[in-house]
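Problem 3 from the worked examples.
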Amino acid sequence: MTTTDFVPQDFEPPTSLEADDFVLEPLGPQHNESDHAAWSASIAHIRRTPGYPDGSWPPADGMSLEDNRGDLTRHAADFEARRGFTFTVLDPGSREVIGCVYLYPSGSDAHDVDVQSWVRADRAELDEPLADAVAAWLVREWPWERPDRHGR
């Protein structure tokens, strides 16, 4: 499966996942302020998150709200074009952003999707339950068979 065929043409990507402690919905520019606040306050925590191997995000010096909006707009465009699927993780009560989930094509022939997630430092207890819920969701509702969960 190539990046242009990340998901089958007739596949309708899920747009939500609900659990007791969080709700996932597609990430977009409408989440800008809450998303920016969430990761800005948790840079060191996110960089240490198991299964989140990038190491260069979030930027150590942060980024402007405008640059963040550009990032969210890019993720929303990827979702629309079916090149990748990024979900914001929301607190079910307040609807504040508490994390993010990324589903993008794997760069490895051994995997068909790269799966990464993070939660805010003050919600660190949700890191593992979120990763486990996403893993089960992939099996139930997504077309991939070889996810790379980066050691999770």
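Problem 4, a separate protein:
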Amino acid sequence: MTLPLGDLRFLVLDTLGREICNGTIPPGATFTTESIEERFRVSRPVVREALRALQALGLLAAKRRVGVSVLPLASWNVYDIHVIRWRLAGPSREAQLRSLTELRGAIEPAAAQLAAQRATANEAGDLVGLSARLYAAGKSGDAEEFLHLDIQFHRRILELSGNEMLAKLQPLVEEVLLGRSQYDLQPQFPALVALQFHVDVAMAIQTGDAAKAARSVVAIADRALDEMRRIWEQELDEITRS
């Protein structure tokens, strides 16, 4: 969806979105247009546009003679990038990253299988070359280049599936990779086995081995989830000891 533009409208929208997604404003809470006008010192049209956007995202519902009410997570458009980013910015970051990674583990194997069946020789060859560059960046510890190439690699798998609906899920996979990097859940030097999994995916697609392509993508997602889990557990141990 297209969200409101303009500094004031975005300020209201982004602030309320973050507060709802991080639980500062809990489900069931209600507020009026007037209270938001007063809080942000903005005009009613600005507030109404921001609230309409939040309603479209499933975060709010209008209530007659009450104003608007905050809805529970089950009502949110959890696939919307803005909701994902608001959740990643708050205490539900771990749950959001886990959900995204599990979703990735479900959709990417299907995309890889289709890519192995549908990619042209040139397309598959380019993917193999991309996997080699990705391997080199990871082995050298070039985190910025690795992230850039990793996003390209996984985006390309979805595109090569030849399925327009899978291709549209690119932003979700991208948010997983960006989130891992932004919140220090990606090691500077990825394990060589993880780098090899990417090469295995590309090679399987090039040779038309759909089953191996799917298995290798599952291995990537499982490895990512395990790495994040270890980091989360380490952080929890440090907090407990302190």
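Solution to problem 4. The mean pLDDT is 91. The chain has two domains: 7-75, 92-241.
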